[in-house]
What does this fold into?
Amino acid sequence: MTTDRTTAHTVHVAAKGRGAHRTIAAAVRAARPGATVLVEPGEYRESLTVDRPVVLRAEHGAGSVTLYPAAEGTPALTVADAHCAVHGFTLRGAGPGEAAVRVTDGSTLALHDCVVLGGRVEVTGTGADEGSQGMHGTRELAVPDPDGLDFDADPDPDPAPTRDPGPALLLLRCRIAGAVGAGLHLSGTARARADDLRIEEVDGTAVVLSGTARLSAERLRVRDCTGTGLRIRGRAAAALVDCALEGTGGSGLLVEDEAALVAGDTRVTGAGAVGIRLTGSATAEIADCRITGSVTSGLVAQDAARLAATGCAVTDSRANGLLVLGAATARLADCAISGTGYSAVHLADAAKADLLDCRIRDSAEHGLHAVGTAHADLTECGLSRIAMTGLHTAQTATLTARGCRLTDTATGVHAVSAAGTELEHCTVLRAAKTGVEVGAGGGVRLSHVRVVAAGAAGIVVDSGGTARVDGGSVEGSAGSAIVVWTGAFPEVSGVFIDAPAKNGIYLAEDAGGTFTSCEVAGAGFPALHVARGAAPVFRRCRVRDCAEDLGQDEGARPAFEDCVSYDVRRPTIPQLGGGAAGRAAGLPASPSGTAPPGAPGDDGPDPDAPEEDLDDLLAELHSLVGLDGVKGDVGSLVKLMRTVRRRQEAGLPAPPLSRHLVFAGNPGTGKTTVARLYGRLLKALGLLRRGHLIEVDRSALVGEYVGHTGPRTTAAFQQALGGVLFIDEAYALSPLHSGNDFGTEAVSTLVKLMEDHRDDIVVIAAGYPTEMDRFVSSNPGLSSRFSRTLHFVDYDAAELVSIVEHQAAEHRYELTEKARAELSGFFDRMPRGEGFGNGRSARQVFQEMTERQAQRVAELADPRAEDLVALEADDLPPQSVALPAAPAVARPVLRL
It folds into this structure.
C-alpha cells in the first residue's frame, strides 16, 4: 500500500488537536469505506457501532487504547452489516455477563493484538447454513487465509451478489478474560478463525459453539475457567491445532448433539470433569493429543457418538482412561492410556471399541472391562502393570484380542461373559494370580496363547465355564498349569505345559473335558491329577521329566487313548498298546491315592539304591561338627530301632513307638543334614524301604483354591513314602491367627496320612524352638505323633572355625595359624541375632575369604603354589561388613 493511499484513507482520533475527531464513533462516521482510523492513547467511553468497512488501529500499539461501553447492556464494540478490523485495542464489557464485542449477520470482524476484559465476544448468525455439515465442515476451516479479514486494500465497490455466509470473526494474538457465562460464543451460522488466542479466568465456559457455527483455532490457550473449556452443540464444528486447555472446572472439550470436532496436537490438562466428552451423535477425530490429569475420565463417548483417536495419550485420569457407553463407538490407533484410577478402558451397554497398537499400563483396576453387550477388538496391543485384570468381560460382552501382550497383571484374562472372549497369538506374562480365568458360566477361546510365569494357575475353568484351547503353552506356573473345576468340560488340544510347580492338569471332582495332543514336562506334582468322579479323556498326550505322571483319587474315571509317559520316575498312565480296557477305564486308585500293586513304579524298594553299612552311617553322623546332644539322641534312637527290628525278626510284637521327630533349632544348625542321615540309618536297619528325603515347606503343601490343599499335601506325602518327609518351617502351617487358613487343612491331611502309613514313612517337622512348641500343641494329632524333639543348639566359635576348616579342606585350601586364631575371634564377635545363620554364616565367611584371597593373589607377579592355597588372616572380611542374613522366618499369608 502506497503512502498516498494511506494518507487518503486515514482518519485520526485524539482528545484534542486540530484535524482530529474527539470520539471514535465520529471518526468512523467520517471515514470512507476501507479507511484506517488511527486512535491516540487513552480511554474512550462509547458504545461503538461500526456499520461500514474500516480499520481501527491504536496509534501507539497494543494496549494504548481502551474502549468502554457508554451504557449498561451495550457492548463496547458492535459490528453490524459491515467489515471491520481492529488492531491493539483493549475492549471492556459493561459487566462480566455482558457482551463486550458483538458481531451480527452479514458482518466480519478481525481483532489483531486485542484484549477483551470483563465481557464475552459474541458472534450471532441467523441465516440458513447451506454449507457442509459434520466432520467435513471442520476440515474447511483447517487452512484459512489469515489475511482474509485484513482490510488494508480497497473493498470491491460493486461486489457480485453472493449467499450470506453468516458473520465471521478473526482473532489473531488476542486475549479474552474475566467473562461470566462464556468467553467466546459463536451461534447460528457464525464462523471464526483464531490464532494465538488466550481465554482466561472465565466463570463458565471458555468457548461455546451452537447452531451450525464453525471455529478453526491454532494455538488456542484456555486456562482457569469454571465450566467447560470448549462446548460444541447442535450441528456446530471445530478444528483445533496445537491448542491447550488447562484447569477447566468442567470437561475440557464437550461435543454434543450432531456436532463435530477435529483436533491435532492438542493438550487437555487437569480437566475438572472429563478430558474430551462426546454425547448424542457427535463425532470427533483427534490425533497426537494429550489428555492429562482429568478429575473423572480422560475420553468419554456415549449415546451414539463416534470417536477416532490416533497417536494420543491419556494419562493420570482419576476414573477411566476411555469410557464408551450406550451405542457409541471408539477407534484408537497407536494410543497410550496410563495411570487410571478405575479401569483404563471401560465399555458398557452396546458400546464398541477398536484398539490397534495401543499401550495400556498402570491401571488401578482392569486394563479393559467390557459389560452389557459391549464388544472390544484389540490388535497388537500391550497391557502392563494392571492392578486387577488385564482383560475382563462380563454379562454378555464380547472381546477379541490378536497379537496382544499382557504383562504384570493380577489376573491376565477373566471371562465371565458366555458370549465369547477370543484370544489369538497373545501372551500373558507374570500374572500375579491366574493367567486366564474362565468364570462360572463364562466362555473363552484361546488360539496359540502363551501363559508364562503365572503366580498361581496358568488357565482356570470355573464351574459351568466353557473353554476351547488350541495350541499355545503354559510355562512356569507357580501353581498348576490348567485347573478344571467341578462341572466344567473344556476342549484342549496341542498345548505344551512346561515346569508347573504343581500339577500340569488338575481336574476337580466331577470335572471332565478332552485333552488332545498335549504335553506336560517338568511338573512338580503329578503331571495329571484327577479327583473323584472326574472323567476326562486324554488322547495322544505325553508326559515327561516328572516324578509322577498321574495322581488320582478313588472314584476318578480318566480315559487314556494312545498316551505315553517317559523319563517319569513313577509312571502309572496306561502306555501305548496297553489294551483297550485299560485305556477306556484308567487305573483304579487305592484309598491313599497310590498306584495299585503291580503297577509300574509301585511302592516296592528302590532297586537302584545302594546298600549302606549301619556303622559307616553312624561314623558319618559323629564326624559332623558339634551337635553332641543330637548325636547322642540319634544314637539312642538307633539302638531302640535296632531292638525293635530284632523283636520283629524274632516274631515278637513291636512296642508302641513313634518314629516321627521334631527338629528344633535356628537356621544353619544341620537339621536337614541330620534328617537325611536319619532316613539312611533307618533304611540300613530295614525299617524304611528307600530312606530318601523329600524336603517341603508350606508352599508345597497348601493350595490356592478350596479343595486343592488336600491333593497337594497327599502328593508330597506320597513322594516321601518309604523315606523321610522333612517339613521345614512347619509352624507356618499353623499361623497364630489362622482363621480360614488352608494350612489347617494341610495339618489334618498330614495327621491322617501319618496314621494310614505309620510303618512306611518318617515325618520330621523342623523350625525355631519356640514356634515348634506352638505348632505341635496346635493339633492333638500332632502332639501324639511328634512325641520326641531333638534340639539343635547354635554353634560356638570353635565349631564355626571347624566348619570353615572342613570347607577349606574340601576345596583344597589351608588356613594359616594366624588366620585360624583371627577367625576364632571373628566368630566370637559376630552378632547372634535373628539373622545369624550358624553353619550357613561359616560357609559364607569361607566364600568371602576365598574371594578376597583371589583378589590378593591376582596382584602377585609370580604366585607360588602355596600362595594359591593359603588363606591368610588378611583374607578375613572386615567385621563391619554385614554377612548375608539367613532367610527370614516365613510368615504364612492368611487366605480368607
Q: What stands out?
A: Residues 497 and 872 are 51 Å apart (CA to CA). The chain is about 20% helix and 35% strand. The radius of gyration is 42 Å.
